[in-house]
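Hello support,

Our group uses your service weekly, and this is the first time we've seen a run hang past the timeout. The protein is Pantothenate synthetase. I'm not sure whether the cause is the sequence or the server load. Input pasted verbatim:
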Amino acid sequence: MQTVQTIDELKHILEANKNKTIGLVPTMGYLHEGHQALLNRARKENDFVVATIFVNPAQFGPNEDLDRYPRDIERDLKIATEAGVDLIFNPTPEEMYPFESGITIQVGELSTKLCGESRPGHFDGVLKVITKLFNLVQPTKAYFGQKDAQQLAIIETFVHAYNFPVQIVRVQTVREGDGLAKSSRNVFLSEVERAEAIHLHKALTLATEHWKQTNNVDEAIAIGKAHIEENTAGKIDYFEVVTYPLLQQVSEQASQLLFATAVFFEKARLIDNILVDVKEV
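Update from on-call engineer: The timeout came from a worker crash unrelated to the input. Re-ran successfully.
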């Protein structure tokens, strides 16, 4: 496995592999089993696998945890090597953003809901780095986890709307044995919070099961919220049910529904979701 930090080095290696199918796995590092699932899928489906490790400052707000975001590059390289990654791109912020162009990408309505409502500008920053990575790597396929469902929906919609020549591959959320979604931010949970955090997925499960039985979205949301409030000390940011991938109000025409929640604990904000195929209910 090769590791490079500059765009010139990245381009040089990719040029030597231009006739191969390329799988791209963008990450912010501190890799866990969820990332491993993305890497393993990419390794299985492509000739050449590129993983990026870059804590993207453009997607963090002024009061968010950019400086505290966990980092362990040596551990990341070990996991990537074991997964069969061919190339790691680990640039600095200065390499990725050498100057301020004044040109921005604005997500619009899709970024005003769910996580975007409390994180203005976050998804603009996500598309900023994703656009650069797609242009630099020119992957055949790019891999994203379903845990970050709003991010996945925005990227899928962006790629489709602007004809990016890349296939977006969804990979299901990887969970701990007790149901907690794998996340780099789980390390910030106290022992008590870690025990409580399993109730996010339990609440989503209760809500989806109630909706399947009654078709009542409002009741499903109320049940999910109540479960979190009764079983955790966390503060609910949102608990919502929307269509996927456009994240709109539920309608009879919807083919997929996203049951999603975000909860603030003392030092971590956790997200989780369940995607339901309406036709299979």
